[in-house]
Amino acid sequence: MPGGPVATGGHVIGASGSKNKFAGIAMTTFSAFGGILFGYDTGVISGIKEMKAWLREFGHPTTDPKHPTGYFISSSTESLVVSILSAGTFFGALLAAPVADFIGRKWGIILANLVFCVGIVMQTVASSVPLFVVGRVFAGLGVGLISCLVPMYQSECSPKWIRGAVVASYQWAITIGLLIAAIVNNSTQNRDNASAYQIPIALQFAWAAILAGGMCLLPESPRWLIKRGRDADAAASLGRLTGQTPDSPEVEAELDEIRTNLEEEVALGESSYLDCFKFTPNRIALRTLTGIFIQAWQQLTGINFIFYYGTTFFKNSGIDDPFVITIVTNVVNVVMTLPGMWGRRALWGVGACCLSVQSACKVLIAFVCFYIAFFASTWGPIAWVITGEIFPLQLRAKAMSMSTASNWLWNFGIGYATPYLVNKEAGSAGLEAKVFFIWGSTCFCCIIFTYFCVPETKGLSLEQIDLMYTHTLPMNSLEYRRRLIAEGPDFMHHDVKLRHSGDEKA
């Protein structure tokens, strides 16, 4: 599932502080509410396109017994309606970096909510497919912006010791959004007028209002303020996040570290997107490609097949009440995301292995729940945490933007192709449940990818991760990480001297 952390500086707020800064944790965790918007929108389209009222408004009448509502939409229309959101999010993700740099992380999130609401208005009042589709595009632009800006804000503002869990809370919010959508769809499905689908769609105004209103009250990222030369505002912001006064020694010390890192970044010069793919001693190209493929493989696990087309799939499989089953699968998704908020590399391998075994099974509901459980506790949240940690300082924003865009690009491709793979009609493959053999094969590839390309980063600072890439390969990262943690600053200082010595000789 989409979304993704971006920290555009090596320093993380609270790195040298205590573990009791509840205010900063609460504020950065609240911003994860942006995940509700994405999760709810994904889940709501799965249900409303099976409602009689929606099909009557946007589909065509039929006497085919395969369509008990008396109306249907073609595979091409279904593909367009579902997947076009991801086309909007792709461009929204690419726009996130310049938006964040120009108006800030906080106000960028608020702007994204306004764009999202424009799309919701269009979908709510639409009486034809074209306007509904355009509304999905605008909503997608908003969600794409949020998917980068929210975890960017979290990464730059959350204390280091709990950074991973805070950023992973964005994925948890996505699962909660999916669950709420399933409950709302089930509650309105039997209405015999347009309110059946207009209520679930319009409810998204509430989620946008909560997020935008809350962000108005939260501080801006101190790092962005320092970058803009607003030192006094940065001190006030950091003071709120750490529970200190703006002129306290702790706040001044952390601001000095931010300034130092900013000076180092400026000294490196401006970096282009092309620089993200250069073969350098610290393996920038490997890291960029790892981030891009992490997001691709997350989508290729097939999870959004369930969340985009779950209601349709259960219905076509003979399930009496597919809306209720969708609620059950979403409950599993919410609960099982919690273990993944503290995991990393090892959980990924286990998750991909279990996903690949599940995909060949035919015990439908039980094994779909099993499938969702392992995704939720592994590839769901951990993908965002890893992606936010592996990029070097000077290229982090650009590389993260491309990684997130990769997620949405594959999201769009899979969303568009699935009806043609699953449906039994002219021009479609008619795979139905056999589509899980495809997801099983891709999940097996995830195991190989994890072993060779994903390092173990838990408990390491961003600078230590940079050293890890310089001195070892991801497959050997467990041992190197143990040495970094065991020997601490002495080992790190030794490695930095070695790297600088090598640079001088070169």
From TrEMBL:
Transmembrane segments: 22-40, 80-100, 107-126, 132-153, 165-184, 196-218, 288-310, 322-342, 363-386, 436-454
Reaction(s) catalysed by this chain's protein: myo-inositol(out) + H(+)(out) = myo-inositol(in) + H(+)(in)
Record's keyword annotation contains Transmembrane helix: yes
Domain called Major facilitator superfamily (MFS) profile: residue spans: 27-458
Keywords: Membrane, Transmembrane, Transmembrane helix, Transport
Keyword Transport: yes
GO cellular component, one term: membrane
Gene3D superfamilies: MFS general substrate transporter like domains (1.20.1250.20)
Annotated membrane topology: Multi-pass membrane protein
An MF annotation (GO) of this entry: carbohydrate:proton symporter activity
Protein family: Belongs to the major facilitator superfamily. Sugar transporter (TC 2.A.1.1) family.
Protein known as: Major facilitator superfamily (MFS) profile domain-containing protein
Species whose genome carries this gene: Agrocybe chaxingu
